[in-house]
Design a protein that fits this description.
This protein is mainly alpha-helical. Helices cover 44% and strands 1% of the residues. Among the domains are: 56-103 and 125-187, Cytochrome Bc1 Complex, Chain D, domain 2 (Orthogonal Bundle), CATH 1.10.760; 249-339, Cytochrome Bc1 Complex, Chain D, domain 2 (Orthogonal Bundle), CATH 1.10.760. It has helices at 2-24, 35-41, 56-68, 105-115, 139-143, 154-165, 173-185, 197-204, 210-221, 249-264, 278-286, 296-302, 324-339; strands at residues 72-73, 76-77. A two-stranded antiparallel ribbon has the order 1-2. Bound molecules: heme C (HEC) (2 copies). One heme C (HEC) binds at residues 89-90, 121, 259-260, 262-264, 269-272, 293-294, 296, 299-300, 304, 310, 312-315.
């Protein structure tokens, strides 16, 4: 009988403990907690590109593919993705705005200045792992069917950009996987996103009920961008152009340095060499009233397209990546440069 009660007691302890353990599987959130882990613990299904744990070797290869266009396997080098571009010509690898919810062109430029980074036409790879759709908005107009799968698949987006945006080739499976591992290593953590006090309270509440779990989930997914919007604009009409009148030349110079020169300095990825010379500025000013590639108002909104025998092209800037006001800032700077007597 004594034995029985001991066993019974032991059983009770086990049941009680497992109950305890069960309750405590609710994730304790610390600044380094992965957003993916948090969201899946709150019931979100795992994404198609879900990676359980990062493989540092794959991360290194992915990073090299992104930065150099190839990766090393022992003494061998993999085939280059594109002879024209690397991913980092158009995409940042870092945070791009102070507040994870706000990625207006003005926010992005302020942050680029503050952290001394380029000002890119593409969206950053930082946190791209946590997005749920890609190539949004008007990109369908530019790429049509090519992006129909890319919209809901990160792997497909990588393929589209390797082949089309980079004027390169489709990637092999190991290359896509390596890039995904790099993206996973660059995923969002709790400390990276901005949330309100209520969210904080919910996060700290270890005994959340189901309703509160849902509330927390909704708050978290609204604390960062799960997709980057993309709206194409037409070039401002001749009448709408202010020719830099109220533009801020200082900000314009930042755009010229951090965006245009990032690709055009000494003709890095383009035949067109841009610099901060009087002649360059005069060339732009001469064309300001037109509707052609040499017109700042137009080249920024349309970019250029690849042609037979000329694979480099310039990506267009969407409304989300450069505002009309910023174009006026750039024009103000170019006019100031044209009027200076060096
Ligand atoms: C010449 C410019 C350019 C190059 C080079 C380039 N991309 Fe892109 N990429 C873009 C633009 C423009 C978009 C449109 C969507 C956005 O980023 O806002 C895009 C979108 C993407 C997206 C979807 C982003 C989103 O949130 O919608 C992925 C993923 C991507 N690129 C991966 C790559 C990879 C990987 C490489 C290198 C192999 C690469 N890109 C090279 C310009 C470029
Ligand atoms: C991602 C790289 C990239 C960025 C950023 C970029 N360009 Fe370009 N641009 C190109 C490429 C590539 C071409 C195609 C020209 C060629 O064939 O080499 C081009 C073409 C042009 C042309 C047309 C040239 C011609 O002969 O028709 C102009 C003008 C121009 N860019 C201006 C700008 C300005 C102004 C900015 C900044 C707002 C800018 N570019 C930003 C890559 C870039």
């Amino acid at each position: 009988m004594k034995n029985f009660s001991t066993i019974f007691f032991a059983l009770m302890v086990i049941v009680f403990c497992s109950f305890k353990i069960n309750r405590s599987t609710q994730l304790t959130a610390v600044p380094d907690t992965s957003i993916e882990l948090l969201l899946t613990s709150l019931g979100e299904p795992k994404s198609q590109h879900y990676i359980e744990s990062v493989d540092p070797i794959k991360v290194k290869k992915g990073e090299s593919l992104i930065k150099n266009g190839f990766a090393k396997e022992g003494i061998f080098r993999s085939k280059i993705i594109s002879t024209y571009f690397t991913c980092v010509d158009c995409h940042s690898l870092n945070r791009e705005s102070e507040d994870s919810r706000k990625t207006s062109p003005e926010d992005r430029l302020n942050y680029a200045i503050k952290t001394n980074q380029p000002f890119y036409p593409g969206s950053t790879f930082w946190g791209i792992y946590n997005r749920t759709s890609w190539y949004n908005g008007d990109y369908i107009k530019k790429y049509g069917d090519i992006i129909s799968e890319a919209r809901t698949s990160l792997s497909e987006s990588i393929q589209v950009c390797a082949k089309y945006c980079s004027a390169g080739r489709f990637l092999e499976d190991w290359e896509v996987e390596a890039i995904l591992h790099y993206f996973k290593s660059n995923e969002l953590k709790l400390k990276d996103i901005q949330f309100d006090e209520q969210t904080q309270v919910l996060l700290n509440n270890a005994n959340r009920n189901e309703k509160q779990q849902k509330e927390l989930y909704n708050k978290l997914v609204n604390s960062f961008k799960r997709k980057e919007d993309a709206s194409f604009l037409n070039p401002m009409s001749r009448d709408d152009r202010k020719y830099g009148q109220n533009g801020d030349p200082k900000r314009g110079e930042e755009i010229f340095d951090r965006s245009c020169l990032h690709c055009h300095f000494q003709g890095r990825v383009s035949h067109l060499k841009l610099d901060k010379d009087l002649l360059t500025a005069k060339w732009f000013v001469k064309n300001l009233k037109d509707y052609k590639d040499e017109t700042l108002y137009q080249i920024i909104r349309y970019g250029t397209y690849t042609m037979a025998g000329r694979n480099q092209y310039m990506p267009l800037y969407t409304k989300e990546k450069m505002s009309d006001g910023q174009i006026e800032d750039l024009v103000a700077y170019i006019k100031q440069l044209a009027n200076s007597n060096e």
